[in-house]
């Protein structure tokens, strides 16, 4: 999984915006946020969102909001990448956690996907 912070939280707006990429077979670990709503707008691909034991299929053009305290993860069981723009509100340290992690590199397809959607 690859993450890039596009907008860091500020004192006025405690929300972060992140570009996320799940490689084929990729997933994040089951996680939860005590105070934050996490929203995903899926740009390309499809996958499965798991929230408190329930599963829902997600795909390009779809929007998903996960509530605080939910146990959740997104899994890409497909042979192609899954892309999303994610917001975390309040940020509650999410952007800092991403920035403190292991640096990652985006490939040409990732950059193309982002630049096509950023227009």
Automatic annotation (TrEMBL):
Taxonomy, superkingdom: Bacteria
Residues of the Cupin type-2 domain: 20-79
Protein name in the entry: Cupin domain-containing protein
Coiled-coil segments: none
Xref: Pfam families: Cupin_2
Gene3D superfamilies recorded: Jelly Rolls (2.60.120.10)
InterPro entries registered for this protein in UniProt: Cupin_2, Flavonoid_dioxygenase-like, RmlC-like_jellyroll, RmlC_Cupin_sf
PANTHER family from the UniProt entry: LIGAND BINDING DOMAIN PROTEIN, PUTATIVE (AFU_ORTHOLOGUE AFUA_6G14370)-RELATED, QUERCETIN 2,3-DIOXYGENASE-RELATED
């Amino acid at each position: 999984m690859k993450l890039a912070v596009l907008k860091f939280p500020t004192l006025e707006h405690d929300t972060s915006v992140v570009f996320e990429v799940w490689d084929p077979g990729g997933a994040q670990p089951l996680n939860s946020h005590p105070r934050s709503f996490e929203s995903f707008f899926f740009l390309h691909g499809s996958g499965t969102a798991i929230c408190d034991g329930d599963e829902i299929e997600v795909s390009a053009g779809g929007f998903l909001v996960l509530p605080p305290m939910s146990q959740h993860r997104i899994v890409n069981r497909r042979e192609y990448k899954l892309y999303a723009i994610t917001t975390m509100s309040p940020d509650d340290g999410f952007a800092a956690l991403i920035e403190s992690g292991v640096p990652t590199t985006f490939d040409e397809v990732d950059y193309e996907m982002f630049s096509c959607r950023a227009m």
